[in-house]
Amino acid sequence: MLIVQHNNLSIPHALAQTRSQPHPFRPPLPRPRLSLKVKSSSTTSRSFTIFNPEKTTAFEEDPSTSTSTLSSSSSSSFGSQFLFRVKMVAVDPYVFWTLFASFLGFMALCLLRRHNAGHKEEVTNNNNNLLREEARSSHDGDPRRVSGSSTDVVIVGAGVAGSALAYTLGKDGRRVHVIERDLTEPDRIVGELLQPGGYLKLIELGLQDCVEEIDAQRVLGYALFKDGKNTRLSYPLEKFHSDVAGRSFHNGRFIQRMREKAANLPNVRLEQGTVTSLVEENGTIKGVQYKTRDGQELKAYAPLTVVCDGCFSNLRRSLCDPKVEVPSCFVGLVLENCELPFANHGHVILADPSPILFYPISSTEVRCLVDVPGQKVPSIANGEMAKYLKTVVAPQIPPEIQQSFIAAVDKGNIRTMPNRSMPANPHPTPGALLMGDAFNMRHPLTGGGMTVALSDIVVLRDLLSPLRDLNDSASLCKYLESFYTLRKPIASTINTLAGALYKVFSASPDQARKEMRQACFDYLSLGGTCSTGPVALLSGLNPRPLSLVLHFFAVAIYGVGRLLLPFPSLKRMWIGARLISSASGIIFPIMKAEGLRQMFFPATIPSHNRISPIKGETKNI
Known about the structure:
Layout lengths: L2 E2 L42 E6 L2 E8 L4 E6 L11 E2 L7 H47 L13 E4 L3 H12 L4 E5 L12 E2 L1 H10 L11 E3 L1 E6 L2 E6 L11 E3 L2 H13 L4 E14 L2 E9 L4 E5 L2 E4 L17 E12 L9 E4 L6 E5 L4 E9 L10 H10 L5 H13 L3 E7 L10 E3 L14 H16 L8 H14 L1 H18 L5 H15 L3 H10 L6 H20 L5 H25 L1 H5 L21
Parallel strand pairs: 6-7, 6-16, 7-13, 10-18, 16-22
Antiparallel strand pairs: 1-5, 2-3, 3-4, 8-12, 9-12, 10-11, 13-14, 14-15, 17-20, 17-21, 18-19, 19-20
Helix pairs in contact: 2-4, 2-7, 3-7, 7-8, 7-9, 9-13, 10-12, 10-13, 12-13
């Protein structure tokens, strides 16, 4: 063991590598001597040479005295003695400073974490105080309620669209607050036929069990009647599972099943109340103001508000440009214990002045919808409606169901509803979105409304799925502009078909329109692609705009061919030209209102390929 003595002090001494020769450009320095006494238990004489960049040191050990002498040459007076233990290990000085710097960094990190923890606790306390103040103010009469931190989405309306959306978002883990004006079972005369395409969307959303236990009826196609003739049009379901088909049911039963399923989710809150207005701050929708069942005025806040309060919405004016048309009204009846000519089929009678629909809504009931053109209908109270139905409508109904129809009229349970049409023309607004009939309507002749609504929910679900934090309203609004573009091909195809078919199926004094109506019936009666193609469009199984246009003008050309055969004449050629012009006048204005570019070239719209504000697994805006 080596001991260096100096005034009873012990300090570590590091031995570094040194040069054995003096610097070639520097004269040698004087060499003072440094004596070190070394205690050793060994009797063997040992000697060491210690090198330093500035000096050469010789170390000798005397076995007789068990001491060693350390001699050194240096310019300073290094003759004093030190007491310290020296281990014969070379230590790089950079290691020491590295460890020292790491120690300082560790201490700084600890201090910083402690400071941040204190700041976070202070912010949390401030937020809790703010929430307590808001709760206290709500009890004092200020209509403030739920803050954005407790609800992700507020949904106005719990009809087909609202209930399905609530369940879909709730299943994805979002906190949903649904406000519905009336939570009792609805009693409507429309929204009772779900096309196979809509049923596929129902399966995709996990809501297919909502058509069970409500006595829903399978619908396999349509039967078309005109002037004593009929043709059956079946859905092209060969490529699908045997369970896939249309469904018809009581609208209220279907909605209640979806409401129950949504309400069973722990993060979905279903509340009865009437929404009176949207809460807007600096151009951003922050939530809604509503009145509870007991008359209390409250506000619900959320980063996203979805308005789907139906065709009579009073909130859509600030979110879109509503251009509502009412081409006709439906007169609704329920025929009891009536067997339709074609089981499990909807029946369409091309009557004068407009179509009549029959379809089952339960195992013992058949819904009848009589279309009356215009916004005014005969009065029910004074008996004019009953007289109109018996004298004008009943003679045009197939004989098999005439008696059941008259019995339903005599029973007196006659209801009416306006048929509204409104193309989607939204105003992208931060914090708000429109869906369902509040956003887009078409004539209910084809029963495509629920298919469009469920398809829209699938699109919205897929857009929101990568996002978890919805609080950046501006970025979210810009991102959700793609919703309006992505929904267009399917929605516009169904909307255009509904409007075009209603005009073609309605009677008209114009000879060209009469020829178009007859050509449509004959074209669908041909079978093959001439029937499966249009029915695939109607059912939502193949909602492609180009296919719609091709089949529509194929009907027109088929009508012209009927006119020119066997011998063309100038009059027939003129009617044929007017028929083509009439067909163009029917479909092009509808497509223009829907948006030609969005229908046929959606990929050219800037918002079509808009990506999520945040990529990857971190799901924040």
